[in-house]
Design goal:
With about 375 residues, the protein is α/β, with parallel strands linked by helices. It is built from 9 helices and 12 strands. Helix 5 packs antiparallel against helix 6.
Length: about 375
């Protein structure tokens, strides 16, 4: 690992030599500048690990130099230690206010100066290690996500193809019995449709942007999403809508919105353990909330009274192919739904509902990303 570099900025050559000698004796590399302009030029050529900056210099003083460093994204993270003859509280606060991390007063005690510099350099090293760890963690998560998706795809497709092959074999053995042939063909068709659904869901992740956005009423989008939930799954289950926002217009992608919300409604409907023919109450409620980052945001809450969030999947429910159901070809609904709403500038979270069941909370900006 290369030795750290400290840039010494002072208009007095004797001061530069004194500081330079004290640092280099401790194995710290140095660079020098005699004024603020030279300092900024030196930083542009190569970022030092730390800057020792004289506060009182002609033309451009240390405060102004520090302000220039803080204004540039490339140099903002470089720690600056002021060197000054001023010892008043006000002067120190002024320097700290513009981004300095420490103060050294003149006449400079070399041992104290080196100790303060080494302390800040340790902070720099720790910060770099944290950045590197975060980068590696991101890579690991990315690899794990790809691995989970690949494993899930292979597992589900292999099982579905096994169903297809098995029923084809049965057809061969009952070619003279039309009723059994029809039943086996139906099972093959169902498996093929699940394969198509998996491929469609995977394809949704390859879309980097949500496509064309239009202005459309929130009420229309909710009703269309519920209609899609009914149509995609052949259900006529009642879904209660409480939408005080009415026909408020939002900017969204119709296909992405409908597909994502219909999957969340389906997840709520499937949360019940009772017989499908029995009542499975699901409700959709809306309200307008203020987001500190996006301003007004539409909140869509989908509530159920089902079995609640399984503790075993609580931390992984949005991972691909995570499901409490034992059916082949499921487990991508929430993954696709979150991806869809995030592509529109929103998000999806799941929480325990007071009184039992689950609440899926969808946030959607009034004007979606890219509008």
């Amino acid at each position: 690992m290369p030795a750290p570099t400290v840039l010494i900025v002072d208009d007095q050559p004797i001061n530069i030599q004194l500081l330079k000698r004290g640092l280099e004796r401790r194995g710290i590399q140095t660079a020098t500048a005699r004024n603020g302009t030279e300092c900024l030029d030196s930083v542009k050529r190569g970022k030092p690990d730390l800057i020792l900056l004289d506060l009182m210099m002609p033309d451009m003083d240390g405060i102004e130099v520090c302000q220039h460093l803080q204004a540039d994204e490339e140099s903002r993270s470089i720690p600056v230690i002021f060197i000054t003859a001023k010892t008043t509280k006000e002067s120190k606060l002024e320097g700290l206010a513009v981004g300095a991390v420490d103060y050294i007063t003149k006449p400079v005690d070399l041992d104290e100066m080196v100790a303060r510099v080494q302390t800040q350099l340790r902070f720099v090293a720790i910060n770099r290690e944290m950045v590197e760890l975060q980068r590696r963690l991101g890579q690991a998560r990315h690899a794990a996500s790809i691995g989970a998706i690949t494993h899930g795809i292979a597992h589900n497709l292999n099982n579905l193809l096994a169903i297809v092959i098995g029923h084809l074999d049965l057809i061969k053995g009952c070619a003279d019995r039309p009723d059994q042939v029809r039943r086996n063909v139906q099972r093959i068709e169902e498996a093929a449709l699940r394969i198509v659904a998996i491929v469609r869901q995977i394809s949704s992740f390859t879309v980097a942007t949500p496509g064309m956005l239009i202005e459309i009423s929130l009420q229309t989008m909710i009703e269309n999403s519920i209609a899609r939930f009914h149509g995609d799954h052949g259900l006529d289950a009642a879904v209660a809508i409480d939408n005080p926002l009415g026909n408020r217009m939002i900017s969204t992608n119709v296909e992405v919105f409908e597909d994502a919300l219909s999957k969340i409604v389906m997840n709520a409907w499937e949360s019940y353990d009772n017989d499908p023919s029995e009542s499975r109450p699901v409700s959709v409620q809306t309200r307008l909330v203020e987001s500190p980052d996006h301003g007004p945001v539409v909140e869509i809450r989908v509530d159920d009274h089902g079995r609640g969030i399984d503790p075993e999947i609580r931390d992984h429910m949005f991972d691909p192919f995570i499901s409490t159901k034992n059916t082949v070809g499921v487990g991508m609904g929430l993954t696709v739904a979150r991806h869809g709403f995030r592509s529109l500038g929103g998000d999806v979270t799941m929480t325990d509902r007071e009184g039992g069941g689950t609440s899926a909370v969808v946030l959607h900006p009034v004007r979606a990303a890219g509008a």
